Amino acid sequence: MNDIRKTRQQMLTEISGLRKRIEQLEGATVRSENSDSQTIKPSRFDSLTGLPERASFFYSLNQVIKTAHQEDDRLAVFFFCLDRFKLINDTLGHSVGDMLLKTVAGRLAGCLSPNDVLCRPGRDEFMMMLTDLRGRDHAALIAEDVFTSLSAPIVLDRHELVMNGSLGICMYPDGSDKAELLIQNAYSALQQAREEGKNTYHFYCPKLSSTEFSRLLLENDLRQALTRAEFSLRYQPQLDIGSGRIIGMEALLRWEHPDLGFISPDEFIPIAEQIGLIGGIGEWVLREACRHHVRCLELGCAPSRTAVNLSPFQLHQEEIASRIFDILKQTGMNPHHLELEITEGALLKDYNLTIATLNELHDLGIQIAVDDFGTGYSSLAYLSMFPISKLKIDKSFVSALTTDQRSETISRAIINLAHSLGMQVIAEGVETQEQLEYLRSHNCNEVQGFLFARPLLPDDSIHFMATATQQTVSGVFPG
Ligand code: C2E
Ligand code: CA
Ligand code: CA
């Protein structure tokens, strides 16, 4: 019991010691920033080991960083701490403790090259500045040398001591390019090494927040998703509001991650756009949707058109119209059966390029719908300049249609606007009969939403098309 208490007490002492060390290091950083230690070389030495003092080490590190920056050199700061030194000092006496520190200092110095610097910033701590490194592997070899050099027993005053320690490493410039941060980061790597066990070294690695980390993992997986065939499409029917006939299907992308299951396109499409993958993914979607449409035609149950979402990044890609045309040709898809959904935001970017591309697509016979309409800020003048055949009322307005006056006003305005510009209008996200009735009574042309069908697997979409009573959706529309 006594032993347990003692161990706890030792741990608490160590923790408070560590806190003090962090404060000292932070203090040293602030002092060093304010002091002239960067310009005038301090010349004090540790009286016990004869090693340079911390200020001197800091000065040398700063000097080396200056030239390393110019010459693209690799450096490292090692922060080493002996295990159980206090215990030895307390039990075997201070003179043994002092001799032990001198021996350890000598062994550590033996691992270094002539231009490297060793110092003792604290009682049982040593810092090393390693220069002329070839890289991280080279630093790791020297770290191994440090532990090997300590592995031979140290004989002092008839006591044979085997010393263990932990080592934290921060590389320049990956870990930091500032002397104070190199030291601090090496120290935090030391704490990590201590947690990992005896005679362990740990490289400082800039911490990623959990969201950054999961984003990074997702990015890596996304890069391989196409080749691993993890993408698939769903098709959501679009209906004529008057007759209930299925007139279109919107292709919606799905990513089945091997560990995480289905990931929403709202989550991964923005990442694909940012890391430059959307072009390849978008082309895959288009090719797949065209193939599906042609297959539906062969089975005698194709909708009049298939709608495919085109990201703003794709719209502004070089020669996008001819790439799309190539895919249509390769798959045997009639351009008049293709509708591209482009968000309102995409129209607002790079006006001249957008209008030229949309005109090219329009000339091929492809129809253009503006997705998420009402969420951007396109002016009427703008809209009338583009060859747009349809506006798609964003589902945020549709879902609040019968409960929020503002959404109702905006939806009505969009319908009137589309009609006055000679365009059709479709409402997406229709979930209730009341929303459908409202849209019908305000002359919206088409509807899409869970009220009629969720996005369907390719075969289910064919089945849906084939069985919808006389091509109308029973129960919702009068037969
Ligand atoms: P979007 O183009 O506005 O697609 C409509 C979204 O609303 C789809 O979500 C659809 O499943 C969902 N939805 C349809 N009906 C209802 C309904 O009644 N209620 C509700 N609450 N939601 C409904 P999804 O499939 O998760 O797609 C989300 C977004 O991801 C799409 O929004 C689109 O911006 C993007 N996306 C999907 N597929 C592609 C693609 O192939 N390429 C590009 N660039 N973007 C895509
Ligand atoms: Ca869409
Ligand atoms: Ca939308």
Low-confidence stretches: 1-8, 25-38
* Tally of distinct domains: 2
What is the overall number of helices? 18
Q: Given the C-alpha coordinates, what overall shape results?
A: elongated
Class from secondary-structure proportions: alpha/beta
Highest-level CATH class of the largest domain: Alpha Beta
**Strand order in the sheet with the most strands:** 8-9-11-12-13-14-15-16
The CATH architecture of the largest domain: Alpha-Beta Barrel
Indicate the CATH topology of the largest domain: TIM Barrel
Q: Kindly report the average pLDDT value.
A: 87
CATH-defined superfamily of the largest domain:
EAL domain
State the helicity in percent bands: 40-55%
What's the end-to-end separation, in Å? 84 Å
Main β-sheet, in a few words?
Answer: 8 strands, mixed, barrel
Strand % is 15-25%
- How many strand units? 16
Radius of gyration: 35 Å
Which cofactor or ligand species appear? Answer: ligand C2E, calcium ion
